[in-house]
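If your schedule permits, I should be very grateful for your opinion on a structural question. I have a record of one protein: its chain in single-letter code and its fold written as discrete structure tokens. Would you kindly read the sequence against the tokens and tell me how you understand this chain to fold? Thank you for your consideration; the sequence and its tokens are set out here.


***
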Amino acid sequence: MGRRKKKNKAKKIIFVSIIFIIIWISGFYLYTTYQNIEINESNYKVERQQSTIEEQTVENVEKNSITVADMLEETTEKVVGISKLKNTGSSIFSNSQEGDLGLGTGFIVTSDGYIISNSHVTGEKYSKCYVTLENGNSYDGTVVWSDTDLDLSIVKITAKNLPYVSLGDSSSIRVGENVYAIGNPIGFEFRRTVTSGIISAKNRTIKIEEENKSSYMTDLIQTDATINPGNSGGPLIYPNGEVIGINTVKISTAEGIGFAIPINIIKPIIESFKETGTFEEATIGIYAYDKEVVPYLNSSYNSINFDKGIYVAQITKNGPASNTELKEADIIISIDEKELNTMNDLREYIYTKKPNDEVTLKITRGKIKKEIKLVLGKK
């Protein structure tokens, strides 16, 4: 019996010892693990890196907040004053006789002195005008191209190494995007005024009545950026500095309704002058309207109804289209597979061609569909 008791006592001691050892080992492991978690340097560094990133983000926001200001400051160097009358002073931006000078706006598009403006600012082709740069230097300007229907013109001055604007893509603009207008409203005191707004609408058509004559401007960009008379010919600009339009007119009976001509219409002409120093304007020899203009026309056109294309209202006598199968009241759907929905679609394409180039028109005449080939003439 005594030996059995001693064995049982020894077993209990061993069991308790084993339990104690297990508890001690577990406790030591947990303590060590806990200590490692508390002092892990990588977790601490992650928090510091996050803090650094936040600080960098704040700095970036501050930098981005002045980007537009930098852009506008740079762009104003490329905006010019244009007048039809020469001032007696050294610059048309002098303080005298601003009303008599009829100051307008333009902007430089090549380093060798090609400038875009409105035809009502510069006058028609071969007209002379006077151009003043941002630095005050004045030049005699010659109108090398002009279209009164579009109210666009290109002026050439003899100069080199001029800063010039970047031209954007007006076909990709969206309503609601921010835009800026730069111009010379009223006169000297307010030259190179910057106004801001949004693109309010696209593809607008307006009726212009001057000297008992009516005309239509189509495919215009509508903006609420303030456009005053002296802003005519100035650029409408994206926040990235790209010019998407040429400011032209405003609705005088309402506030916040101004219009700009899409820049794409004149880009092929600028490219031609840049590459060759000339531009030969080709023509089909028709007067046509798109569906946006038809509602403005007289009652004889009330029955016209079409969803796509442009309506041939008149074929020029002895013009390129006069000896073809094209007829008045045809609807031209496309030219060389380029779909047409506005007159500017047609103009943009024709401006890329030359006189004597052949084009293919797809037309509809009631239920009849035809392809007509014709050779472009010189306008």
User: Anything to note?
Assistant: Residues 203 and 219 are 4 Å apart (CA to CA). The two ends are 133 Å apart (CA to CA). Helices lie at 2-38, 41-64, 67-76, 98-101, 119-122, 267-276, 343-350.
